[in-house]
Amino acid sequence: MNGIIITDGPDACGKTTLQKAIVEKYGAISKHLTWNEELNKRMFDYQLDELLEAIDLSADNLVVIDRHWISEMIYAKVFRGGSPWPRMPYVMDALCRFNGALYILCMPGTIEGTVERHRENIDSNHPYSDEKFRELLHEYEDFYRKTGSQRIDMIRYTIERNGNDMEQFISDAMKQLINVRKMVNAWK
What pTM did the predictor assign? Predict the structure, then answer.
């Protein structure tokens, strides 16, 4: 199995757990992208470098990226007044689409249930208020409704719906990745 899967979504929605399950099942290469003050100064280059490396590795491997441009776009909007790279989503998404990546958007099943999970698992890297977290969750829901639900290269995962049979979800996701890659290869 080769290709790129990007798990993205807000905290407390199962991204890292799902990524680990895919890595374990398929021996995939795992990449976890993050944000901090230092990276903020060069976020575009950081994400581009990581994506280009994933593209190279994906020729012979399955690569799973935990967070990418969608997180930068939405978290920057909610917590930093916007990203200094407004065209970043278009560049990154074009590269992902051209290379047949599959996005798995790990989304809240319910806003309040996700807020509670976040509250229970809060750490020093994510100390924001419930109010800001709800705003973040609504931004992800809005993004999925406007963009993700219209695309075959974006599928939705929720802990409540898919967490009990993660193996089946992963199997279905792999089939979708194969379909996306076939479609992209036919275009090329």
Answer: 0.93
Per-residue pLDDT reduced to its tens digit, 121-155: 776 666 788 899 999 999 999 999 999 888 999 99
Give the separation between CA 78 and CA 96, rounded to whole angstroms.
Answer: 24
Neighbours of 44 (CB within 10 A): 17
Minimal CA–CA distance to 75: which of 9, 5, 16? 9
Domain boundaries, the chain: 3-187
CATH architecture entry for 3-187? 3-Layer(aba) Sandwich (3.40)
Identify whether the C-beta of residue 85 lies closer than 8 Å to the C-beta of residue 146.
no
What is the C-alpha separation between 160 and 110, in angstroms, rounded?
A: 9
Tokens linked to 175: 């089939």
- Which two structure tokens, joined as six digits, stand for 166? 């993660």
Q: What confidence tens digit (pLDDT) does each residue in 9-55 have?
A: 998 899 989 999 999 999 999 999 988 778 878 999 999 999 999 99
In terms of C-beta distances under 8 Å and separation of at least 24 residues, what long-range contacts does 17-23 make, across chains too?
17/166, 18/104, 18/106, 18/157, 18/166, 18/169, 18/170, 19/64, 19/66, 21/166, 21/167, 21/170, 22/62, 22/64, 22/170, 22/173, 23/64
